[in-house]
Design a protein that fits this description.
By secondary structure, the chain is an all-beta fold. It contains no helices and six strands. The two termini are 24 Å apart. The model has no long low-confidence stretch (mean pLDDT 85).
Length: 69
């Protein structure tokens, strides 16, 4: 599960990738990268705050640190 929180209203929006997210999350302004056991996801937020997958890259051997091009 990946989500956003509007700190002004407390509204939570989320999506499910169907994969477990352990602790591999990295952010820069406007984007977030999330590594699961099988995939590296690059996300942004829709105007309503719902997470949107911009890019999805499978990883090899269940190792989130090694994306496949």
């Amino acid at each position: 599960m990946i989500g956003t929180v509007d700190t002004g209203t407390g509204t939570v929006r989320s999506i499910s990738t169907g994969e477990d997210v352990q602790n591999s999350v990295s952010t820069v302004p406007g984007r977030t990268a999330v590594a699961t056991d099988h995939t590296l996801h690059l996300l942004s937020a829709a105007p309503d705050g719902t997470p949107v997958v911009q890019r999805r890259a499978p990883t090899t051997g269940g190792r989130p640190a090694s994306p496949v091009s």
